[in-house]
Amino acid sequence: MIDIKKYAVVVAGGQGLRMGSAVPKQFLPLLGKPLLCYAIQAFAATIRGIEIILVLPTDQLNSAKTVLKSYLGNIHVTTVAGGATRYESVQNGLKKVNDDGVVFIHDGVRPLLSPDLIQRCYQQAIDRGSAIPVVPVTDSIRLVENGGSRAINREHLRIVQTPQTFMTNVILPAFAQPFDPSFTDEANVVEAFGTPVHLIDGALENIKVTTPEDMLIAETLLKASA
Predict the structure, then answer these.
(1) Residue 225's pLDDT band (boundaries 50, 70, 90)?
(2) What is the spatial distance between Cα 30 and Cα 40, in angstroms, rounded to a whole number?
(3) Residue 12: which residues within 8 A CB-CB, separation 6 or more?
(4) pTM for this entry
(5) How many angstroms separate the Cα of 68 from the Cα of each of 40, 73, 104, 146?
(6) Is residue 151 a contact partner of residue 142, using CB atoms and an 8 Å limit?
(7) Other CB atoms closer than 10 Å to residue 155's CB: what's the count?
(8) Distances in whole angstroms, Cα of residue 152 to Cα of each of 31, 112, 137
(9) Domain total for the chain?
(10) What are the C-alpha distances in Å from 36 to residues 19, 129, 136, 152, 199?
(11) In the chain, N or C terminus with fewer CB closer than 10 Å?
């Protein structure tokens, strides 16, 4: 890897409502370790010297310090308070990006992040400015509108994952623009700023944990890869 700064902004803003838990989902134990620790460890193990920025709701910052100290050892993590929207949370994390380089933006509840995906996203961001991991849609899809529905050709659809990865000169100016309710992810923000984004093959196992069923799937996949 070339000698430039590397950053990982890990966004973990969930409250665990769909998990049916009083504990925020990013702190739920997955095989004995809090969920958010997996992605942090993946970045630290794959990219030497990466600066990791963890974005959390304000009321979770103190809990996070205890978790990080207990489970991550000497991995240095900068914690940042998030905002009311994902856009604001990512924007707050990006304020800690002080030098030119590459920025990964990752969901803290995607614990099965592989070194291969990190490295491929990094290389494409260097080559093309951005790397947005996606996987094909395998189910039949219908669009519901005007009281009816119609089939959509799934060949033209992709499911978007993270880490969405960018050169700093692409992502930082985009997040200086005013918030718009249409912003759903970082790729959307960059496109709204007028910069095209570039897709890359994601990984089917790179699931986002939002329900108890997702947690069971993650446990199974982690045990299978051990």
Answers:
(1) confident
(2) 14
(3) 24, 26, 36, 54, 55, 56, 107, 108, 109
(4) 0.94
(5) 10, 7, 20, 49
(6) yes
(7) 8
(8) 38, 30, 11
(9) 1
(10) 15, 27, 26, 35, 25
(11) C
Rounded CA-CA distance 108/106 in Å is 6
Q: Are 162 and 110 in contact (CB under 8 A)?
A: yes
3-state SS string for the chain: CCCCEEEEEEECCCCCCCCCCCCCHHHCEECCEEHHHHHHHHHHHHCCCCEEEEEECHHHHHHHHHHHHHHCCCCCEEEEECCCCHHHHHHHHHCCCCCCEEEEEEECCCCCCCHHHHHHHHHHHHHHCEEEEEEECCCCEEEEECCEEEEECHHHCEEECCCEEEEHHHHHHHCCCCCCCCCCCHHHHHHHCCCCCCEEECCCCCCCCCCHHHHHHHHHHHHHHC
Residue 32 clears pLDDT 80, i.e. is over it: yes
CATH number for position 110 = 3.90.550.10
The residue behind tokens 């982690």 is: 222
Q: Are 109 and 11 in contact (CB under 8 A)?
A: no
Q: What are phi and psi of 136, to 5 degrees?
A: -65, 150
Tell me which residue range forms the domain holding 54: 5-225
Cα separation, 205 vs 170, whole angstroms: 28
What is the structure's pLDDT at 22? 65
How does the average pLDDT of the chain come out, rounded? 93
**pLDDT value, residue 94:** 98
Residue 224 tokens, joined: 């299978």
